[in-house]
């Protein structure tokens, strides 16, 4: 007869330590009683794990508070605070045209951000790794922290990624560029890999307009469309990491591909110029249609330009079809439009929401992200922090002083 074995004591301690760190991060000074209330753990467990986390350098124990007369009545409450500067993490977004790196402390506070234009697809793997090295070194120097303080790095990529952190794609670029292995071998850091839209979803729920929303779709809407989906607060990957991939849009009437808002707003604006329309767009682009950008079209529409407004109305209808199809499948409470065009996408939302009931019986709220084009790197920080919290008893901050080995 098969019997089930109980989880090991060490595994339980890891889970409990992770719960305590989550409760303490950003909460200030907490007593054992506070932690018991926040985690549901017994006093003995709380104090035991606090002692271990103090020893490892994750927590600092504060001096005992004294009364007005300078003495303490009864047994003094032990007080602990999470040390945000115990270690650091990196979040890296490898885009088609630039790489963005954020250095953060253990409280999730960004210490430095560096963005470098870089056409990663045009060079070999070693040169890409060299560029990553330089950007990471620049960000760490700007943050004033050392490389050995880094306990985890998350890299966001525009490709499906499995639960095990493997890129699942036939693109030759990712076959030749094992970014996780290269970064780990060069620095000794633990490297996590995740899809960029999934990281955007984590960022939005952590720091964006979707805080507290458990059923969520975040769409990267720049040159291409991508979606990260949370259900009941859990990021969905699917069997091979392809949940949220939008290739099916090739077969959706009125959509036809996965090209994004920035691409089509600029293209349709250029078409308006080619048609000879009387429009501000000609002046904005210096009578050079190829230089017309999506931002120029949004600006002209905001100034009442009819040709530009027609472009945005057309885009709103297209995005209503996209969001409607995703919503019929995933039934989210909220869809957030994110990425480089998010600040301008506010102009599309009233028309999108007006048209959504035509394309889904369960229309969600639609909002634009406030996190800008750093959203993927912010989500990468969140995932790295989650990893460190989960493995806190197995990781050693730079401040940890290992006991001296006895001399034989």
Automatic annotation (TrEMBL):
Keyword Membrane annotated: no
Keywords: Kinase, Transferase
One GO MF term: kinase activity
Family: Belongs to the ROK (NagC/XylR) family.
Protein name, UniProt field: NBD/HSP70 family sugar kinase
Biological source species: Pseudarthrobacter oxydans
């Amino acid at each position: 007869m098969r019997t089930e074995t109980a989880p090991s004591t060490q595994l339980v301690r890891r889970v409990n330590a992770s719960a305590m760190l989550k409760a303490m991060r950003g909460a200030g000074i907490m007593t054992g009683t506070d932690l018991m209330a926040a985690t549901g753990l017994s006093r003995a467990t709380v104090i035991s794990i606090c002692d271990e986390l103090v020893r490892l350098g994750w927590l600092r124990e504060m001096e005992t508070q004294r009364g007005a007369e300078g003495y303490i009545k009864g047994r003094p409450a032990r007080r602990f605070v999470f040390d945000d500067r115990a270690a650091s993490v990196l979040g890296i977004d490898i885009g088609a045209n630039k790489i963005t790196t954020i250095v953060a402390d253990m409280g999730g506070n960004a210490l430095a951000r560096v963005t470098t234009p870089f056409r990663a697809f045009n060079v070999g793997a070693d040169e890409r790794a060299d560029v990553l090295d330089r950007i990471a070194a620049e960000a760490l120097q700007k943050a004033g922290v050392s490389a050995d303080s880094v306990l985890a790095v998350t890299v966001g990529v525009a490709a499906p990624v499995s639960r095990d952190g493997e890129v699942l794609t036939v693109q030759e670029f990712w076959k030749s560029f094992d970014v996780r292995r290269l970064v780990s071998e060069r620095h000794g850091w633990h490297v996590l890999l995740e899809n960029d839209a999934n990281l955007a979803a984590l960022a939005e729920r952590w720091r964006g307009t979707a805080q507290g929303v458990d059923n969520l779709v975040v769409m990267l809407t720049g040159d291409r469309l991508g979606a990260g989906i949370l259900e009941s607060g859990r990021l969905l990957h699917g069997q091979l990491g392809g949940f949220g991939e939008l290739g099916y849009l090739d077969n959706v009437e009125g959509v036809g591909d996965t090209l994004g808002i920035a691409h089509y707003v600029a293209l349709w604006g250029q078409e308006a110029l080619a048609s000879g329309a009387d429009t501000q767009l000609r002046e904005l682009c210096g009578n050079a249609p190829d230089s017309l950008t999506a931002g120029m079209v949004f600006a002209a529409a905001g100034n009442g330009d009819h040709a530009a407004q027609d472009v945005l109305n057309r885009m709103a209808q297209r995005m209503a079809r996209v969001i409607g199809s995703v919503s019929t499948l995933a039934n989210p409470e909220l869809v957030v439009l994110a990425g480089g065009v998010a600040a301008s996408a506010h102009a599309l939302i009233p028309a999108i929401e007006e048209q959504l009931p035509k394309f889904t019986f369960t229309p969600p709220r639609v909002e634009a992200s406030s996190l800008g084009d750093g959203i993927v790197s912010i989500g990468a920080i969140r995932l790295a922090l989650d990893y460190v919290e989960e493995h806190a008893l197995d990781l050693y901050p730079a401040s940890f002083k290992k006991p001296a080995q006895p001399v034989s």
